[in-house]
Design goal:
Strand order of the largest sheet: 9-17-12-13-14
Low-confidence stretches: none
Distance between the termini: 21 Å
Number of strands: 23
Shape: elongated
Radius of gyration: 38 Å
Mean pLDDT: 89
Structural class: alpha+beta
Length: about 625
């Protein structure tokens, strides 16, 4: 090896050592910098002559485990999703409150039962009458305030989606910009490694918002997709847009049908044109945005459905009266059937007809529901809570003549039933007579009482913002939706609490008559009702059945269990996330002790290379002096 070759080798060693020292300095300086990845010099041997080799710098290595990083981002999405859900379900629990405390649905309902017991014990007491009405008013107000709490949470979720979309767009734009910068870089040098650190931080931020997967090319550029396959970022970023709707009400609901949807939806606009609805296609499946969407459109909507169902069942339990039909004379013997008086039938009220098909032997339970908006027809069997009935919606807006025509057209040929209107508001239903293909075995009609002094113990104690509650179905949906927000005590009762006892003025209800108060107490305390499966309790085929107290305890308990489960899931996700973060930190983070040890080794290497150069200089000096 010649002196010049030896000098070149020593100088390459010094350059490599200096570069390594610079990286050690950078590592130590950024030991506490979030997102910083430990860096080392990539050194390779280079030939400098026949008898030796030098050291060449071939870029900078980032000490990063790609597999761990991928796992970390997946868990990042899951942890963010579960954390948001846990927080909101805990807040929902606060809205419901502790059942043992005041200001809760269960407490208000128990207070109402106690007031009704006092009323039945002292029907002549003015204070007992006033107390019963006041307790009913407190019950309605509790349902109103619970609704407001649920809708506030939904509004917060809507706001959370909006903020998350802004953050996602910022992260995607920064990732795309760094991708472009990397396109102009060749070798992975220190500046390129720093760009990769920055990009990873933005990708990590994006993974908290949306579930993602990444693909990296040979230029270190990354393409990001959702797990459902929608491309978010390449060298250009897509743009998410969200049309936030502001105030939330129980009727502000999501629908895949754009004409019926009245909450914000997320649309992705691609760089070269075209757009895609991310909500209707279920393209976002984890992360904060997925949690906010699920809360706004499912979890909190179901919570609202529970208290709406409670309000509806409580209202109907007191105001609905079912009257059996009377035997009708056959038009042509031996026809048989029933006459039903439809006076007072409200939209949403139901006529029940049971008939037997003598050919098949099957018994059919038919529910004929009054509808005043023909645009909602036909109705499905889910329009009632009876899992065994067949529902027929009939438009009553054009009068009885039209009703009869609709019924005969729908059931005359298929069920062998005949309908007529012999007088006034009477509906007559008959079987087919002599052919004996069908028999009408029972008929009744359920109507909503609208008067406090109808002579019936049933009363409209609760109203829908002053209007009767009959369960009407209109173009805006079921009357039950949002009822808990609108429920109020009948203003006539507020003005005259005596109507909690007096149900007839001609003749006047006898003093001390407890028929009405006993009826109210029985219906509220021991009456058994079906509840809609939209509440998340029971199923369509087997709806939950029980008292109002049973139902309230069921959904309050369900919400408590859901909140506990969400917290446990969030805690579990945090354990997994922290474990992965520690593993990543162990491989990618800066260990000061290791860096100091490395620094000492580099000092020795620098001194050795410098000593070689000094020796070569002395040799050159000796050689020159000898010439």
């Amino acid at each position: 090896m010649g002196l010049s070759q030896a000098l070149s080798t020593a100088m390459s060693g010094l350059r490599a050592t200096q570069a390594s020292l610079a990286l050690v300095s950078s590592n130590v300086a950024n030991a506490e910098t979030p997102g910083y990845v430990k860096k080392t010099l990539n050194q390779v041997a280079g030939t400098t002559g026949e008898f030796g080799s030098s050291v060449l710098i071939n870029g900078v290595n980032r000490q990063l485990d790609q597999y761990l990083q991928t796992q970390l981002r997946t868990e990042n999405s899951g942890a963010s999703y579960s954390a948001v859900r846990s927080t909101y379900l805990a807040n929902l629990q606060n809205v419901y409150g502790n059942p043992d405390e005041s200001g809760t649905i269960e407490n208000a309902f128990n207070t109402l039962l106690t007031a009704m017991q006092n009323l039945s014990t002292s029907p002549d007491s003015q204070s007992a009458r006033i107390g019963a009405v006041a307790a009913a008013q407190a019950m309605a107000q509790q349902l109103n305030s619970t609704t407001q709490g649920i809708q506030n949470l939904r509004a917060n979720a809507e706001s959370g989606i909006n903020d998350s979309v802004i953050s996602a767009n910022n992260a995607m734009a920064r990732i795309a910009a760094i991708n472009v910068q990397l396109q102009n870089n060749g070798q992975t040098d220190a500046s390129t490694a720093s760009l990769l650190d920055q990009r990873d931080q933005y990708i990590d931020q994006l993974s908290q918002l949306i579930d993602i997967r990444t693909v990296t090319n040979n230029l270190n550029q990354v393409t990001i997709f959702t797990n459902s396959g929608v491309q978010l970022v390449g060298t250009e970023a897509s743009q998410l847009s969200f049309n936030a709707q502001g105030t939330m009400t129980p009727n502000t609901l999501y629908s895949n049908d754009p004409t019926k949807n009245n909450v914000g939806t997320i649309t992705i606009n691609f760089p070269h044109g075209g757009s895609y609805d991310m909500v209707s296609t279920n393209s976002i499946r984890s992360g904060k945005i997925a949690a906010y969407l699920e809360l706004r459109d499912k979890t909190l909507v179901q919570a609202q459905a529970q208290i709406d169902q409670f309000a509806a069942s409580m209202s109907s339990a007191l105001s609905d009266k079912t009257t059996a039909g009377t035997a009708a004379p056959g038009s042509v013997a031996p026809q048989a059937g029933f006459d039903l008086d439809l006076a007072g039938l409200q939209s949403g009220n139901v006529i029940h007809v049971t008939y037997k098909n003598n050919i098949t032997g099957a018994t059919h339970n038919l529910s004929i529901m009054r509808v005043d908006d023909p645009g909602v027809l036909p109705l499905t069997n889910a329009a009632t809570l009876d899992p065994n009935d067949e529902v027929l919606g009939v438009d009553f807006s054009a009068g009885m003549g039209s009703v009869i025509s609709q019924l005969n057209a729908a059931l005359g040929a298929t069920a062998d039933l005949q309908f007529s209107n012999p007088s006034g508001s009477v509906l007559r239903v008959l079987d087919d007579g002599a052919p004996n293909r069908s028999d009408v075995t029972a008929a009744s009609v359920t109507t909503t009482m609208t008067s406090l002094t109808s002579g019936n113990v049933q009363l409209p104690l609760f109203t829908d913002n002053g209007a009767p509650y009959g369960g009407a179905i209109t173009a805006n949906g079921s009357q039950q939706i949002g009822l808990a927000a609108r429920i109020s005590v009948n203003t006539a009762l507020l003005g005259d609490p005596s109507r909690t006892i007096i149900y007839s003025t001609n003749p006047l209800t006898a003093a001390g008559d407890t028929a009405r108060s006993d009826f109210i107490l029985t219906q509220l305390s021991t009456g058994s009702y079906r509840y809609s499966p939209t509440t998340g309790i029971g199923t369509t085929g087997a709806p939950f059945t029980g008292t109002l107290t049973n139902f309230a305890r069921q959904f309050i308990s369900q919400q408590g269990e859901a909140a506990n489960a969400a917290k446990q899931l969030a805690d579990g996700q945090n354990v997994v996330l922290n474990t992965l973060q520690n593993k990543v930190s162990a491989t990618s983070g800066v260990n000061i002790d290791d860096e100091m040890a490395h620094l000492l080794a580099l000092q020795n290497a620098y001194s050795a290379n410098a000593r070689v150069m000094s020796s070569i200089k002395q040799m050159y000096d000796t050689l020159i002096q000898s010439m």
